[in-house]
Amino acid sequence: MAWPAVGVFVGGQGRRMGGVAKGLLLHEGRPLIERVLGACRGAAAPGELEHVYLVGQATPYAATGVPSLADAPAGVGPIGGLRALLLRAREAGLEAVAVAVDLPFLGEGLVRRLCLEQPSVAVLAPRQVGRWQPLFARYQPERVLPVLEAVLGQGQLALQAVIGGVERRGGAVGELALTPEEERELHDWDQPGDIGGGLPTLEP
Q1: Into how many domains does the chain fold?
Q2: pLDDT over 70 percentage in the chain
Q3: Is 97 part of a structural domain of the chain?
Q4: What is the value of pTM for the model shown?
Q5: Which residues in the chain belong to E strands, given as ranges?
Q6: Domain containing 97: what range?
């Protein structure tokens, strides 16, 4: 099998974090960018995950040596990054996996599940609190790009609208069911108050 093209979404200006690039924040002494890239690469056998990109404003991460994809178009948020990733994956004849950089607890096993399970669906993603997780999701470019282009053409920028549009057009959207432990792996660092804690505790 061909492993998908993986895009780690590194975000924009880091305004919620006071201008600090999220991926450079440290958890247990390691930058988030290293932890997330490690989980993605570890999901496959060594050397098999050939297409890995940083999506978005990647200048702060130049030292990683990972190629970057600029949002296309710029200035519209993550939907521009997803479009860039899908275009690149289509060129390579691959599916695309989108992963947010602010996931300090992400493990390679969960990334492997995202890459491999339900291979026939147009989109595979978990649902949390009734919403899809579009930045931990797998996409088939040929089936998703027309929907994304239509969403952009209507002036919508929400990634939820892309997945909803795939559903409305009859494209199969699969849910990646999560164990309680995997739910915790997707606990993100979205604002300053999230930083520095360990894994969130399970509800009794």
Answers
A1: 1
A2: 89
A3: yes
A4: 0.91
A5: 5-11, 26-27, 30-31, 52-56, 68-69, 96-100, 123-125, 127-128, 131-132, 136-139, 173-175
A6: 5-191
